[in-house]
Amino acid sequence: MTDSNLTSATLNFDPDTLREKYRIERDKRLRPDGSAQYQSIDGEFSNYVDDPYVRGVPTRAPLEDDIDVVIIGGGFGGMISAARLLEAGIEHIRIIEKGGDFGGTWYWNRYPGAACDTESYIYLPLCEELNFVPKEKYTHAPEILQHCQNIAQHYDLYSRACLQTQVSGMSWNDSKKRWLIETDRGDAMHARFVIMSNGPLNRPKLPGIPGITDFKGHTFHTSRWDYHYTGGSSEGNLDRLADKRVAIIGTGATAVQCIPHLGAAAKSLHVFQRTPSSIDIRANRPTDSAWAKSLPEGWQKARMENFNALTSGRIVEEDLVMDGWTEIIRNLISMANYRGKDIDPREIPKLMEIADFQKMEQIRARVDAIVEDPKTAEALKPYYRQFCKRPCFHDSYLQTFNRPNVTLVDTQGQGVTSMSAHGVTANGQTFEVDCVIFATGFEVGTAYTRRAGYDLQGRGGLRLSDKWAKGLKTLHGLHSRGFPNVFFMSTAQAGFTTNFPHAMDESAHQMQYIIGRCLNEDIAAIEPSQAAEDAWVQEIIGLSRISESFQAECTPGYYNNEGQPNPTSTQNSAYGKGPIPFFQRMAAWRDEGSMAGLERS
Length: 601
Prior knowledge:
This protein is an alpha/beta fold and 601 residues long.
């Protein structure tokens, strides 16, 4: 089957026409400033990252003790890492978390409507270990946060935690073979091993809008939702907005979840859109109690691996999850009908593109079917490949634009042009509002140490910011030469899967194995050899070129550095063969037993 066999008559659309439409929509959104269009949250905006969920900072004496393993970050990655270490009998651990509790993303993000958009049965970690099944297919933020707290209680993490504590610096003492970790609480603790689980989305960003500081009304970022101003809770009912004119800037995954609640509550709501999101059916539903009771041992791992296989493009006998993430693969199988057939591998990208076109045509048709005003409907249609931006799933977002108090301000890809004392300007028109909510996401692609909030000084005074200035240099995405005994939990130069906690768990098993070996065999320090690190970086670069053309053709967004692919993006990409081969490779590395590529001292 080739592109020529798939005519516009058989497809009900013309692939060439769609490609040109996608190109036009991409090009009008390209900006010369790229990611520089955003500004960091500091200075007079520093309060945007304050913790609204705690009152004051409890006093405690600074810590200057020695710990086997310090984990930085109390989100999913930190909790999974701690759990796997404790299960292996490695108990002398400490977790440093800047928030007032465990949860990471789910501690900070409590905006109305917040929920996971990957099935909760595979997304929430350690469900089997806690004998827990979420109450909905896509469970909401309060239950996720409660699950995080339950994990912390189950594994006794609170007694091992320094909450409301932020790392300010790390330096390696080569004679002691220890890391000195300093914090904003005066700590100067030492650690034999450090796990960096800072999280990929932890530093909010703001658009660099001229006049943003001139606005005299109320403002806040969605990652620090101001319920004192809006009223209500994560379930909505924002009763204090009844007499307020509200603007929200951004229409990404967060905005899609909170806009229905804003539309239901505000006197008026203006939604400022640069690029529409892809909105598929969510079809959330309560968990069937009989099904939950029938789940066999190992059910979560099996379900995670089934989902991972499908979203990696593999053929499996059954789709256990059956959602929008796996649907495009089902479309491909149905269209190509290649089960048991010999298909030229060169045809697969073409078939994937056609399957993608079909899916996005369905997404655009759904907009027409729901949104009553034709002009608004057309503006809400996404014209790009499905995975150019994070796909969204919601059953009331599009319907919100049928409300008489809700106005879509489509900026034709240009964004808001300015702000003044009382309003927001776009398309040459100023809209007077009382409140501006920034749903503008988090920093992605900026320097690792910038997002972490501190630098690492390794062996010989080498700084991580300097070593990684022109691209990451790691072995397996986990180790970096010159920084002994540090583990970086990330998908960069490692395995990426849509279900990120699955990748975190695989990394946790790898770290647990290595740390366990070092403790049991009295290995003071490990780091990659120069040859092993160089070879891994070159392998990552060689494999990552597969997606270069796809990213170049995408509409601007954080996936492709706002349409200006970063020179380091190829080097910083995930393992190009996919997560399953990467996970298998790490398992084989452990089974082989020599800790190949790591130098020991």
